[in-house]
Q: What sequence folds into this?
């Protein structure tokens, strides 16, 4: 039986003939075109010549490996495709991570791109890898790794003075991946590793710690130390194939479970392994009528302005992503700067929270109330972030903005239903946290191209720092150089602005990627399906609410 | 015995059984079928109200009569072929107290003898070719002449003799053939008319002495002595000639006291338009529908009425002839292999629906076409105001037929129906030998068919997604290579790879740059637009084979598995059986070196020998069969290894 929530379709007041709307659309398409170019670049991995050399060895590029393991014509939701943006590393970071359907099973796939530094682990690849493991663990979906990696990136980075500016990572702390892989297995999350190339030293543990290992004839190599290191360590002469070739591991050591004739055959075996997992999803199937929204998803292009300054009614987004544009709004007259209520997306029931301006004490309390209600009924939450923060000022401090904002953050933190976050516009300060930002254990975070994420707006940061400098000058009794300050303000504003852009955030893998606003409904649908690989259960406990 | 009856057993199979049931039901008769094991899955069996198994074939008259008695059938209709012209069987039916739907056994017996028939014709004043029953005396007949078997048919026991010195040998050989084929070696001599046509007149007679004719039919094209295209009226018969021939046929019928439906065959001299009596067929003819279409008279219904003792409901002047009807016989046979019968499962069979196109078929989608019976699948009859309109409609109907799984003469028929010689009405008996059918697909049709197949598969794949069913096909938020599917078009040498990506607007762009829009898909096909050309393309999909309709017929496309399982593929030099059959001879043994073109073994199938030759030079590394083995279509027979092993990698991506 199919049914739907009984609330009627919401009416959108968006004027698609409005000049601002038209301008927003063309700005958005421009930003999407820029992203498209970057995605093309990322797909090129280490560049054409390396790609050619890889192919000339009869090997498939990582993206072809992935395309061939997926169920034909099925979607692929890539995670952080633009990792490493504006860095010294190749766009994408030398690793592809994504969620796809293999043998009707949602799996997270991580694959080294051997055309980038021979698949060595760049800092970006490491972070992506951890994210892949996290997705597998949080959502309880099988973890598939396509390994072809030179191992750690042994190059040392130093600043101008020969020292690193920040040094909080150390080898002693590394290896968490291996711990995590066994953790996955303990959680009954299957781990399947296809070794496409050499997988040495630490790399060898990746197949070693997987539930299933597939090796490719005359191509996969797996050893703790390669022939040169063996020679150095023990003086023994050896060659790749006898030391750690697929045949040896399949026939002698038993470290390879499946022996593939070639890469395509390895992908076939990988699909076969997933097909036998007998994967069952504990979460309920979509139970509501998944009728399309009454409003054109294409119009999502024109809702936010490039500078994010023009006001947005988040309901204009909601009606373009929910089934039949239906939305049952909770407390519409109270705490109106936070819009929340129930809807379904592709048949999956959700609780939606969106911002119509800054968070006031009452809107924060409303959010805390709503999050608790959704936890009571085991309903996933979707956060549509467009938030400049919690309201500041005398009246609001005395109204308890800290305590009421904390109530909201407590509810968000304690909530155990899956959280999906889409930053459609701004995401500043504690607003980022309250609206379930990346650090708040949400399952997926996506950005619209115009999104900005920072501790506060560039103007505010630059202005605050200017005020501080002015105070310091006054205390020191020196004359304040207005001209110099104006220059500094401008520079700080520019740097802060750039650092807050969606591309900067996504380049740092502080989200799962930038999406085309028109895809919002489908991306949420895929995520809502993925989260159902684990039972959806609301929390039965919260931190102490400061009341 | 005659009189009203409430049920009829059809002592036949296939299309004629279904055709008789159709009329019998329309006049309220219960329908009983008989069937043999090979027909157990045939539609006529399940469509009958009851069907009785025959253990010894359709010629077992005793069992058929027993079936009629057991099921309470009151009448027996023999159809054509099998026992239809067996006077002894007819008599047994009557003796069993059943109604025989056909002429009296005595009449059948008399007409079965060509010499006796000629005598009757003479008595009725119907001209026949000068003939002599004395095969040693040629004076009366003159040359050229034919030596013919008295009990003959189908060209058997027939010899053309140009001069006296050939006569003795021809008579001897005709007698041998007649003796072995019909159990009667009586032959006679008959004058031979070099340029001639066979034209036949359909007659109906009731038990009250009423007799009418329904005009003529002409067989335009035949192959291997079997008709494949027939029509009514004949392009060379005008109203006066029709009346003249019709009256001659009726005189003959009156002379023998003919009841039921029959056909009087004449030979017409192409030059003089003189006609000569040849023989009488005392049954319903395969090609009877063309007469029904131009006269509007249901011949089977008249047979049933006559058998029940009713008088004909009309007289000669009530009968009019409207338009032109042409019938084509769609057969499971391979025109490129000398019309060798073909077998297989008819995975797709869906006649087109056009007004005034009639399909009398014995099969449905899923029917198995075996070697036991005549390979005719269906008769297709098109009627139009003129002969050219009828021919055009028939050709189009055949092209629009959705058909797959078995090789047929469809393309040959279409090509013949559009041949200028045929359209001019000049086709003679040698037409097939001189006609080279155009069988190739029009340019681009194969590409479009493959794209349609790829899009169909794409849709199936999306329909089978139980996880992200809502997401658009091939959805990506970043970049992955094109979705690819490998297809093997029947008759083509190489596989085709169709690669495509789907754009946000729903348009698929193939790796070759074609723009493809899928407007809709249902269980019968796909509404697809390729570079601005749109059509609803009928598709049948059985396991890994797809039958895709094109403007000129159906193409067969095999989906190449995405992943080859090592060791499961046929070895590179493997030779497989081209059709089911038995191994007659094995000329090589393991380890032999063979050269390209050398016959390796001989397969006997459909009563013909097929030589399996080496495709290249090499060494025999495996022989999987020995003499006498029965092999299925596609069975691996032997393997040859090329001397220079290029050790090709298995394909795939």
A:
């Amino acid at each position: 039986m199919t049914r739907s929530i009984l609330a009627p379709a919401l009416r959108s007041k968006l004027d698609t003939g409005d000049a601002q709307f038209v301008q927003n659309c063309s700005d958005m398409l421009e930003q999407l075109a820029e992203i498209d170019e970057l995605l093309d670049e990322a797909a090129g991995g280490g560049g054409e010549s390396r790609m050619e050399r890889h192919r000339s060895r009869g090997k498939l590029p990582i993206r072809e490996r992935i395309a061939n393991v997926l169920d034909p014509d099925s979607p692929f939701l890539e995670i952080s495709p633009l990792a490493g943006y504006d860095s010294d590393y190749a766009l994408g970071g030398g690793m592809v991570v994504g969620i796809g359907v293999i043998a009707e099973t949602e799996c997270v796939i991580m694959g080294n791109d051997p055309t980038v530094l021979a698949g060595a682990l760049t800092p970006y690849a490491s972070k992506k890898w951890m994210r892949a493991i996290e997705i597998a663990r949080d959502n309880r979906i099988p973890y598939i790794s396509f390994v072809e990696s030179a191992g750690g990136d042994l190059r040392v980075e130093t600043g101008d003075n020969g020292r690193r500016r920040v040094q909080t990572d150390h080898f002693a702390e590394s290896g968490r991946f291996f711990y995590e892989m066994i953790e996955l297995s303990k959680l009954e999350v299957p781990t399947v590793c296809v070794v496409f190339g050499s997988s040495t030293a630490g790399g060898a543990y990746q197949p070693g710690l997987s539930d299933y290992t597939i090796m490719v004839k005359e191509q996969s190599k797996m050893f703790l130390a390669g022939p040169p290191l063996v020679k150095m360590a023990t003086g023994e002469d050896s060659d790749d194939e006898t030391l750690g070739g697929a045949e040896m591991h399949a026939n002698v050591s038993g470290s390879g479970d499946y022996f593939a004739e070639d890469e395509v055959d390895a992908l076939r075996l990988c699909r076969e392994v997933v097909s036998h997992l007998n994967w069952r999803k504990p979460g309920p199937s979509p139970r509501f009528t998944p009728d399309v929204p009454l409003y054109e998803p294409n119009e999502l292009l024109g809702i936010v302005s490039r500078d994010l300054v023009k006001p947005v009614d988040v309901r204009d987004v909601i009606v373009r992503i929910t089934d039949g544009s239906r939305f049952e709004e909770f407390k519409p007259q109270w705490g109106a700067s936070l819009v929340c209520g129930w809807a379904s997306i592709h048949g999956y029931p959700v609780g939606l929270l969106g911002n119509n301006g800054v968070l006031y004490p009452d809107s924060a309390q409303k959010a805390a109330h709503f999050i608790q209600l959704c936890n009571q009924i085991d309903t996933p939450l979707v956060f549509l972030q467009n938030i400049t923060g919690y309201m500041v000022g005398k009246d609001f401090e005395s109204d308890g903005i800290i305590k009421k904002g904390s109530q909201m953050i407590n509810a968000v933190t304690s909530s155990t239903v899956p959280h999906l976050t889409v930053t459609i516009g701004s995401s500043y300060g504690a607003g980022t946290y309250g609206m379930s930002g990346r650090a708040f254990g949400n399952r997926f975070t996506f950005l619209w191209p115009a999104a900005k994420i920072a501790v506060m707006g560039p103007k505010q940061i630059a202005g605050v720092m200017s005020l501080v400098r002015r105070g310091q000058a006054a205390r020191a009794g020196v004359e304040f150089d207005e001209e110099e300050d104006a220059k500094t303000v401008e520079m700080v504003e520019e740097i802060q602005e750039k650092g807050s852009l969606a591309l900067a955030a996504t380049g740092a893998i502080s989200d799962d990627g930038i999406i085309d606003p028109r895809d919002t409904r489908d991306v949420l649908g895929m995520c809502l399906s993925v989260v159902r690989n684990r039972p959806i259960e609301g929390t039965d406990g919260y931190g102490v609410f400061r009341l | 015995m005659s009189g009203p009856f409430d049920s009829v057993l059809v002592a036949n199979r296939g299309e004629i059984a279904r055709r008789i049931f159709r009329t019998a039901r329309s006049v309220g008769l219960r329908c009983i079928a008989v069937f043999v094991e090979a027909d157990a899955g045939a539609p006529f069996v399940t469509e009958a109200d009851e069907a009785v198994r025959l253990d010894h074939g359709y010629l077992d008259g005793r069992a058929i009569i027993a079936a009629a008695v057991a099921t309470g059938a009151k009448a027996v209709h023999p159809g054509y072929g099998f026992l239809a012209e067996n006077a002894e069987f007819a008599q047994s039916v009557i003796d069993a107290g059943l109604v025989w739907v056909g002429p009296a056994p005595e009449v059948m017996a008399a007409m079965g003898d060509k010499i006796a028939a000629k005598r009757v014709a003479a008595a009725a004043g119907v001209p026949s070719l000068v003939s002599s029953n004395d095969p040693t005396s040629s004076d009366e007949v003159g040359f050229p002449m034919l030596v013919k078997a008295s009990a003959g048919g189908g060209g058997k026991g027939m010899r053309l003799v140009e001069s006296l010195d050939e006569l003795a040998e021809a008579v001897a050989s005709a007698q041998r053939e007649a003796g072995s084929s019909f159990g009667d070696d009586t032959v006679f001599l008959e004058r031979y008319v070099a340029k001639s046509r066979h034209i036949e007149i359909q007659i109906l007679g009731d038990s009250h002495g009423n007799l009418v004719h329904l005009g003529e039919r002409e067989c335009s094209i035949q192959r291997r002595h079997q008709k494949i295209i027939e029509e009514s009226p004949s392009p060379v018969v005008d109203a006066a000639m029709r009346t003249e021939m019709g009256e001659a046929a009726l005189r003959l019928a009156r002379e023998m006291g003919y009841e039921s439906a029959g056909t009087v065959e004449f030979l017409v001299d192409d030059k003089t338009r003189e006609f000569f009596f040849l023989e009488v067929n005392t049954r319903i003819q395969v090609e009877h529908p063309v007469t029904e279409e131009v006269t509007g008279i249901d011949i089977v219904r008249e047979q049933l009425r006559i058998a029940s003792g009713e008088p004909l409901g009309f007289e000669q002047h009530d009968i009019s002839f409207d338009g032109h009807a042409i019938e084509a016989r769609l057969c499971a046979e391979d025109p490129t292999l000398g019309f060798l019968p073909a077998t297989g499962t008819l995975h797709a069979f869906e006649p087109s629906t056009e007004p005034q196109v009639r399909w009398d078929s014995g099969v449905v989608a899923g029917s198995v076409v075996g070697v036991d019976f005549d390979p005719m699948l269906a008769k297709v009859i098109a009627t139009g105001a003129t002969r050219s309109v009828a021919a055009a409609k028939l050709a189009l109907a055949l092209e629009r037929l959705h058909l797959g799984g078995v090789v047929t003469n469809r393309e040959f028929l279409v090509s013949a129906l559009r041949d200028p010689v045929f359209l001019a009405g000049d086709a003679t008996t040698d037409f097939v030998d001189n006609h080279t059918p155009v069988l190739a697909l029009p340019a681009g049709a194969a590409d479009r068919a493959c794209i349609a197949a790829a899009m169909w598969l794409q849709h199936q794949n999306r329909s089978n997604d139980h996880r992200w069913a809502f997401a658009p096909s091939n959805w990506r938020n970043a970049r992955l290579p094109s979705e690819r599917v490998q297809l093997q078009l029947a008759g083509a040498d190489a596989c085709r790879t169709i690669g495509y990506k789907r754009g946000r607007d729903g348009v698929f762009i193939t790796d070759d740059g074609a723009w493809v829009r899928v407007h809709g898909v249902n269980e019968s096909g796909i509404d697809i637009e390729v570079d601005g050309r749109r059509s609803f393309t009928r598709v049948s999909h059985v396991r890994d084979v797809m039958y895709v309709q094109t403007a000129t017929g159906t193409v067969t496309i095999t989906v190449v598995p995405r992943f080859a399982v090592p060791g499961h593929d046929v070895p590179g030099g493997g030779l497989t059986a081209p059709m089911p059959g038995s191994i007659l001879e094995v000329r090589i043994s393991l380890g032999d070196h063979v050269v390209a073109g050398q016959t390796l073994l001989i397969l006997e199938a459909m009563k013909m020998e097929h030589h399996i030759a080496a495709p290249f030079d090499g060494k025999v590394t495996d022989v999987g069969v020995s003499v006498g083995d029965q092999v299925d279509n596609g069975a691996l027979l032997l393997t040859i290894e090329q001397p220079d092993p290029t050790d090709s990698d298995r394909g795939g991506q």
Observations:
- Chain B touches chain A at residues 457-458, 461-462, 465-468, 470-481, 483, 485, 504, 562-566, 649-650, 652-653 (CB under 8 Å).
